Amino acid sequence: MTTVLQHLTDGLTRSMEGDKRVFLLGEDLLDPYGGAFKVTRGISTRFPERVLTTPISEAAIVGIATGMAMRGLRPVVEIMFGDFVTLIMDQVINHASKFRWVYNNNVSVPIVVRTPMGGRRGYGPTHSQSLEKLFLGIPGVRVLAPNTIGDPALLLQNAIADDDPVVFIEHKLLYACHRLEIGKGDLVDGEVEQFGERYPTYNIRFSSKPQISIATYGYNFEIVRKVALEVLYEREIFTEIIVFSQLSPFNLMPLAESLSKSHHLLTVEEGSSNLGWGSEIAARIAESDLNNVKIRRVGALDFPIANTKTLEDLILPSQSVIKKAIYDLME
Amino acid sequence: MLLIRRFEERLLEEFSSGKLAGTTHAYIGQEANAVGIFDVLHKDDIIFSNHRCHGHYLAYGGDPYLLAAEVMGKSTGLVGGRGGSQHIHLRNFYSNGIQGGIVPIATGMALAEKYIKSKRITLVFLGDGTLGQGIIYESFNFASLWNIPVLFVVENNRYAQTTPIEIAVAGNIPDRFKAFGINTWECNSTDVVKIREDSEQAVNFVRSNMQPAGLILQTYRFAAHSKGDDFRKPEEIASNKKSDPLLIHGNRLEKTDREMAESEITWIINEAFSRADQDPYPGSNNLPPILL
Ligand SMILES: Cc1ncc(C[n+]2csc(CCOP(=O)(O)OP(=O)(O)O)c2C)c(N)n1
Ligand SMILES: [Mg+2]
Question: Has residue A96 been placed in a domain?
C-alpha cells in the first residue's frame, strides 16, 4: 500500500516529467537527504538541474519562485516546516497573489508553496503549528490540503498546473497514512460523493439521513472518521463527513447540501479555532438560507503548542474532545 | 529627461489642485539615471521598478497617455486602473510598492531567463532607504551563489522619505555588495552621458559574464518624497539644483533645439492628460471572481 508521502513524491515526479518548466526550490532538498520530510527524495537524482537546494531564506525563495513563474516557469517551493510561513507572508500577500489581477491579467504567477503543518509529534511551539488560516481569505491565493479520500498525487499535480499561486498544506502525520479504499476497512459502510474535479470536496455518509455534518480537512479527517464510527456504535448517531481539499476560496455547496438534511454542524481543524476556518464556515451557514442549524467548532486551544505530550494533547483537538462536541451538539 | 520632468510636474500640479487622489513619487532630479542606463539595455531586457517608477517607465519608452490614465484610475490605464501610480506593467517592465520585496522577484526573473537561455538581463531598482530591508541581502546571496544575471541599481538620493542616509544606512553601500562577492560600479555624477558610460560597464559585465552586479548612482530628488512631505533645508535643495541633469545636458543643445523639445513635450503631455481625462472609470462589470 502506498503512503500519502509516496503519492506526493509521485505527483511531483510526474509533474516534473510532464513539464520541463517545473522546478523545485527549498532547503536541504538534495539526495541522499531528499528534504526534511522526504517528499522530494529521489527527485534531485532524476532531475538534477531542476531541483534547487537553497540557503535558509524562506522569503527570498518564494520571491525568486514568483519571479521565475512570471517569466514562464512553474516553480514548486518547499517550506521546511509550516511554522516558517510567517517569513513568506509579504511575498505571498503583497507580491505573488497580487500581480495577475493588479496587472490586469497580463501576467500569471503559477507557483506552489508546499509545507508540512501540524503537531502531535512533540516538536514544540515553533515546529507544530497549523498556520494555514493565515492564508485563508487572501484574494488570489488558493489553499489546498490533501487527504486520504482523494488522490494526493493528482491534487498536487493539479496545483502545479494551476496558473495562480497555491499554498499546499501537508499535515506531518498524513505522510504515513494510506489512501482509503471506499467500501473497505474503516469506511466499510460509507458512501462517498465527490463534488468538483480539480480540487474536490468529498461527502462521506453512513446513512442517507445524516444527523450531523462534520466539516474537516487534511489529517484531521483521520481523527474524525474514527470518531464517526465510535458515535455510530455507541449512540447510533449517523454522521456525514465533509472533507475539503480546497480551504480557500470557500465552496459552501457540498456542506450546505449535507446540512439541509442534518441541521447540525461540527467543524474540526487543528489550528486555533478562534477566528479560524470553522468560524468562517459558521458565519456562512448563519448567512445562508438554512434555518435552525446548531453549530460547534473544534480546534486548538489558544496557547502556543507545548512541547510536552500531556500539554500538547490538551491543546490540540483530540478524539475525545471531538466526540464530546458531537454529543453536546446532539443533546 | 524633459518628458519625465514635465510629466511629473504636471502630475504634482494635478494633485495639488485636487484633481487627482492617491499618491505619487516624482522622479524630478533623478531623470538622468533611468535615461542613462536604459540607453545601454537591449529592447527585451527586464526592468523591475519601485514606487518611484514613472520616470523609469517613461525612459523605458512607455506611453505617457497610458500612465496618465492609470494614475487617474481610468479603465484605459496601463493596468485598467487596478495598480495606479506604483503598480504598473508594460511588456517587460514591472513595478510594485513594497520596499525591497521586488528584489528577489527580479532575481527569480533573471534566473528564469538564464534557464531558458534568452540572454536577457534583469535590472531592479532600490533606493538608499530600501537597503534596510533584509530580503535584499537574501537576494544578493542567491544572485552571487547561482550566477544570476541581475543588475541591482541603487539610486542613492540620500533620503528615505524624511530619513537622511546618515541615520539609516551603516557602513558604506559598496561594501554591502562586496560582502556577497558582487562586482559594483559607482557613478557620482548627474550627467546622463557619464551615467550612461558607467552603466554600460555594469550592464555589459552582467550580460557577458552572466553574473550579478551592483550599480550605485549618487543622485538627488528635487521634489518632495511624495507630496508635501519635504523637510530638507531649502539651501541644500538649491545647491543640488546646480547639478540638475537637465541643465547639464541642456547646455549641450542649441537654444532652438531646447525650445523645440519643450514645445513638443508640452503638446505630448497636454494630449496625454486631456485624452485620459475623457476616458471612463472601470465599473462593477470588471469584477468577476479572482479565482474560480
Ligand atoms: C516595506 C515598505 N515600508 C515602507 C514603505 C513606505 N515608503 C515608501 S517609499 C519610502 C522611502 C524609500 O526610500 P528609498 O529607498 O531611499 O527610495 P526613494 O523614495 O528615496 O526613491 C518609504 C518608507 C513601503 N512602501 N514599503
Ligand atoms: Mg532615497
Answer: yes
Q: Which cell is A106 given?
A: 497580463
Give the separation between CA B25 and CA B12, rounded to whole angstroms. Answer: 9
Structurally, chain B folds into a number of domains equal to 1
| Tens of pLDDT, residues B269-281 | 999 999 999 999 9
Q: Which residues of A touch B112 (CB under 8 A)?
A: 67-68, 70-73
Radius of gyration of chain A (CA): 20
Q: Is residue B165 part of a domain?
A: no
A131-158 burial by CB neighbour count: b if 16+ within 10 A, else e? bbbbbbebebbbbbbbbbbbbbbbbbbb
Q: Which CATH number belongs to the domain containing residue B71 in this structure?
A: 3.40.50.970
Q: Are residues A206 and A306 in the same domain?
A: yes
Within chain B, residue ranges assigned H as helices are: 2-16, 31-38, 54-59, 64-72, 102-115, 135-145, 173-178, 192-209, 234-241, 245-250, 255-278
Site from A71, A73, A77 to mutate, B interface, most B CB atoms within 10 angstroms: A71
Q: pTM of the prediction?
A: 0.97
Residues of B in contact with A69 (CB under 8 A): 108
Q: What is the pLDDT of residues B226-264, one digit of tens each?
A: 988 899 999 999 999 999 999 999 999 999 999 999 999
Sign of torsion over alpha carbons A237, A240, A241, A247: negative
Mean pLDDT across chain A? 96
Closest-approaching ligand to the CA atom of B127: 1
Side chain identity, residue A210: P
Please tell me if residue B102 touches chain A, with a CB cutoff of 8 Å. Answer: yes
The predicted model gives A126-152 an average pLDDT of: 97
Closest ligand to the CA of B136? 1
Q: Is residue A183 part of a domain?
A: no
Residue A226 confidence (pLDDT) above 80: yes
3-class SS at A25?
strand
Say whether A60 and B89 touch across the interface (CB within 8 A). no
For strands A201-205 and A22-26, give the pairing: unpaired
| Closest Cα in chain B, distance from residue A331 (Å) | 39
Which member of B87, B105, B112 has the closest CB to residue A63? B105
Name the DSSP class of A168: E
Which DSSP string do the residues of A202-263 spell out, in sequence order?
Answer: EEEESSSS-SEEEEEETTHHHHHHHHHHHHHHHH---EEEEEESEEES---HHHHHHHHHH-
- Can you tell me which residue has the cell 535590472? B123
pLDDT-derived band at A185, boundaries 50, 70, 90: low
